[in-house]
Amino acid sequence: MGTILLMLRSRPEIVSKKERIPFVPEKLFSQVIEAGMPSILRLWEEGDRYFPKGALSCDDEIIHHKNVGGSYYQCNPHFWQCFWQGGFSKYPSIEIEFFGKKYHISAKASFDPILAYSAQPRFYQLYKKNNFSLNLDYGYVVELQVKELPGKSQVLILTDTCRDTYLPQRSYGYSKVADKRDNGFIWDNFDRNIFIDKFYVTNRQVNEWKILTGRSDSIEKDRTRWPHPALINLKDQRDYCAYYGKRLLEAKLFDAGTMTPADLKETLPMRVYRPETPWQRDLSKTFLGIARINPDYQLTPLDCQLAEVQGCNEKYFSTDSATWMGIHFGLGFYPESLENFIEPKKNLKMSSRLFHPGSEWHELGVLSSWKEGPPYNLPVAFRCYEEVIE
Amino acid sequence: MMFLYIFSFILNLHADVPTHWSHIYEIHDQHEFYQNDEVIIRPKDSWQTLFSLTYIDREFNGAKDCVYYRVPGLDSGKIKIKTIHSSEKCDDFILKNSEKEISGIKSLKYSIQDRGIDLTFIKDGNKTENWMIRLHKKNQKPLNLFGLSSADFKGAKYILLAPKTHLKSSSRETFLKVGTLCLEVNDDCEIKSPSQCHRCENGWYEIPNGCTSGPKYCGQLRCGDKNQPACRRGMKWQKSNDDFDCRTNSTFAYCSKGLSIQCEGRKAFCR
Lengths: 390, 271
Fold this sequence. Notes:
- The structure holds 2 protein chains of 2 kinds.
- Chain A is built from 8 helices and 14 strands.
- By secondary structure, chain A is of the alpha+beta class.
- In chain A, the strands form 4 sheets. In chain A, strands 2, 3, 4, 5 and 6 form a 5-stranded antiparallel sheet that branches. Chain A has a 4-stranded antiparallel sheet with strand order 7-10-14-11.
- In chain B, the strands form 4 sheets. In chain B, strands 1-2-3-4-5-6-7 form a 7-stranded antiparallel sheet, with no helix packed on it. Chain B has a 3-stranded antiparallel sheet with strand order 9-11-10, with no helix packed on it.
- In chain B, a hairpin with a 2-residue loop joins strand 14 (261-264) and strand 15 (267-270).
- The longest helix of chain B has 13 residues, at 2-14.
- Chain B is elongated, with a radius of gyration of 26 Å.
- At the A-B interface, strand 1, helix 2, strand 6, strand 7 and strand 9 of A face strand 7, helix 2, strand 8 and strand 12 of B.
């Protein structure tokens, strides 16, 4: 009798005790999304890997030219739009396996068209900080769904993890030094978290800024020019960077990012050397040095990958000119606008594709003065940097 | 009878873990005294704030679910969940009506860990509920920052948004004006309150004062010019242990060519 009573007693019932395959649809949905995020992020951050060999069918978003490198398609909302609206394959989806079952994740076209681009509903929405809950100045809002779990969706913000790269904390030198025994202007960035744009700011990025600030009518409409550097005036360069919580790149940061330290492990060296190019300490040993002696020097494809100078074919988003910390275009390519609080008149990296490889502008630490307007109508590119407070 | 059935159905619904708790980023307002896995038995018949859970809703509002508990005494216990703005204080709403309530609780305990919160309570009828609230994983910042992007540094490749909370935008949350102090640092190099520089609309700038972190203001950096703050040069390149107070050693700052540093207390300006 006692045994029977013991069996009949009220016992605590355990509800949802173990983490196992969820039977609540909402839970299953959120776990499938979580499981699919690495694949979604791969699509977002490494768009170039998904780029088809054949032609695309999304001319409103991308008109690809072979002189545009794959990096352009990384963290690129037009790539995202093209992929999901069927520019690559008829029924795009990301397939994942979760607890032995296959699920297909896709983005929803749930956002209003951006008429400056096309009348198509968008698979993303531009996000710009409008309150302070997020430690995030900008990003792209997207909505995901799972084919096998209809009626549910997840909204999220994808961040731009492809844009900039960290400047290690150490002492740096600014500009050239007249005498190699002279240390020149030395500074350090200890206790500062500085991130420099890897590439020039593009027309695509400036278009987004204009759309967000209600100037859609003045965007660059020629899609073939979207990957090209944005050529805007100095005030707009500063305002563009500030809008995203960034600043126009400074000359001393440009030097820091392009002059390879002699010893990466020694963050406070006795002497701070000033290499003359990003890839070779001594310019005379490079094609630029040889071209100074021999004006008839014939450029090789490798030369043009390191520094696009006069005589090279145009290339955008090439990654062969990467400096020691990961930014591009240290020498050659476009003239670049630089803020200079040490010598304010030296605000332009003149080394560019406008000049013969033997030109003396092609050397790190050599700057010019940018005077806007005619007769100095130079095509001046720019990039930003961000300092993050922890 | 029918009414009782519907009533018990609603109660059961309330006992489910809120689905939007799969979007939780942080835990705040933890109770000062309760220990992990301690059965909460006092002070009897009082409302206590156990913890709060923060998340971002579809309208980018920072929201906070305050989890309150009325400790059983003469009456049985009750859990109350109230959604407020993340900038508000749970204690200010402890006696207000809430969106969700679970009554008839005999006992309750919880434990807070890095991965989230395990909350267990026993209801009348000895039915045990075990809620596992998991924090949305924030990327860990790697030790070696080489090659890291600013977005990765801030810890988020993506941010999941919870459904709309119907919270009104907080009037307290406005951009700070240009020139507003957003990070206060005193003459002893102490940071007086958490940085508000994320509330600057167009970035911030620092006035170097020789401290690891100088005071910061909203606005664009225009350092080094005449009558502007000096620019920060750093305090380690000198390889000295000096106190970098502007009045004694101003090598932590610089001005544009032709200008010199003038001190205002510890702070460096260019004249």
